[in-house]
Amino acid sequence: MKTVSSLLDEEWHKRYKSISKLNIRSSIYDVTNRCNLRCKGCFFFSSDEDKAAKEEMDLQKWEVFIDREKERGVNLAILIGGEPTICLDRVEAFYSRLPTFCATNGLIKVPRDRFPHLMVGISLWGDEEDEKLLRGKDTFPISSRNYEGDSHAYYLYTITPKQIGKTERIVNRIRDVGLKIHMQLLSNDEGVEEFFWTHEELKDIRAEMDDMLDKYPDVVISSNYYHEVITTGKMFDRQFGWGECPSVTEPIDRRDPRPKHLMGFIRWASDLKTMHRCCTSETRDCSTCKDGAAHMSWVMVNKRAHIRSEQDLKNWIEVYEMFAKLYQFIPW
Amino acid sequence: MAKDVENITIRIAEIMINELKLEDVTPETFDPEIDLVDEVGIDSMDLATVALVVQDEYGIRIDEDDYQKLTTIRFIAEYVQERM
Ligand code: SF4
Ligand code: SF4
Q1: CATH code of the domain in which B17 resides
Q2: Does the record's keyword annotation contain Iron-sulfur (chain A) (predicted)?
């Protein structure tokens, strides 16, 4: 029988050991239904998730709710929205109780005297042209001014098909403001015209992502295997999609058979009662979904499947390390 | 008593191999001391699958909160034996 020790040398075994006991249990929270932008193809607004539940306004109720989440075993709160920084009191309620990650468009600066170690992921949808077209304005000059040199922030760069051949420029822009970068892909069905991945384009962007990681290993938080999985939708001979997705809200998951999934995962709406189907929009087509976190988690929950060769296990370790770095469980 | 644990150990190994479709191992060669989580990659979903069969077969209840203690086949066998 293949075991971890039989496949790894000492150095890799040490790396494995530093993540194997982390036992990350995440859930996602819509902090608010409001946003200071209206991006085209934002899954939250395009699928009317902002109308799915009435936002809870009583801060005390948030605090009680978060305490309950902690009791339930959640040890990573991923805050999304809307734009969480519009409601910093709620962000603080999470931050003071749980390891917390905050996704933001970066237009409002999280005050570091109040949130010294809050991990912030700043969304960026491409270059100036794409940003203007998709989000109505280029957010980079503002977000980079707000977070320049911040050691607890990184850019979450959503690559669109129009970015092929242009990613290096973006990586350099981000490097120049002293920040790190994680790459993900725009999903096909986000309702934005002309932003549709073809098979060929996915092949090209995979090579480009590999290239960026090769050239800028200190800036890019990624792994080649993640690039492979997210661009091909394949892990071994398995195809990503509804039948395999690990990021489905557990209490309402009626799939049979149930695939490997994130234990206890829930995506909560901002009324603190409604549960969304998964980490992204319910209207998204699972067969073309390119959600980065779901693909990463897909690899992570399938550890045993990767204990079959040295390379497979190393691939698994690299993806897990990437996730652990992005959410501050291990240092960059 | 010792024989009981030995028998249960072999049977648990067999259940694990069958339920999780583990390859290149037999109930006899499955090291009962090996760390199932760290070394074999067994997760709580796998344990739940195995626990269902074990519960049925031995007429006991395995509390989900105890999963974290059940890290080797030996520990599972002793846990079962104590509750039979
Ligand atoms: S900033 Fe984020 S939440 Fe706001 S509209 Fe854009 S994608 Fe949606
Ligand atoms: S849309 Fe994506 S994240 Fe949601 S269930 Fe489908 S595959 Fe999973």
Answers
A1: 1.10.1200.10
A2: yes
Residue B37 has what pLDDT? 93
Supply angle C-alpha A84, A85, A88, rounded to 5: 100
Residue-by-residue pLDDT tens, chain B, 84 positions = 566 889 999 999 999 999 999 999 999 999 999 999 999 999 989 999 999 999 999 999 999 889 989 999 999 999 999 998
Asked whether residue A250 is domain-assigned, the answer is yes
pTM: 0.95
Is A1 in contact with B41 (Cβ distance < 8 A)? no
Of A1, A2, A304, the CB nearest to B46: A304
Number of domains chain B contains: 1
Task: Choose which residue among A30, A32, A38, A42 to substitute to test ligand 1 binding: the one with the highest number of ligand atoms within 8 A of its C-beta.
Answer: A42
Residue A204 lies in a domain: yes
ipTM: 0.89
- The CATH number that applies at residue A87 is 3.20.20.70
Nearest CB to A20: which of B23, B24, B38? Answer: B38
Q: Which residues fall within 8 angstroms of residue A316, CB to CB, at 6 or more apart?
A: A225, A299, A300, A302, A303, A306
Residue A172: inside a domain: yes
**Token couple for A20:** 């194997």
The rounded distance, in Å, linking the Cα atoms of A240 and A234 is: 6
A25: tokens are 């249990």
Residue A86 lies in a domain: yes
Parent domain of A140: 26-254+261-297
| Block mean pLDDT (10 aa), chain A, length 332 | 96 95 94 93 84 95 98 97 96 98 98 98 93 91 98 96 94 98 84 79 97 98 98 97 98 96 96 96 89 97 96 98 97 92
- What ranges in chain A are assigned the alpha helix state H? 4-7, 10-20, 43-46, 59-71, 88-95, 128-135, 140-147, 167-176, 199-215, 224-232, 292-300, 303-306, 310-326
User: Which of A321, A257, A241 shows the shortest CA–CA distance to A289?
Assistant: A241
Domain region containing B69? 2-83
> What total number of domains does chain A contain?
1
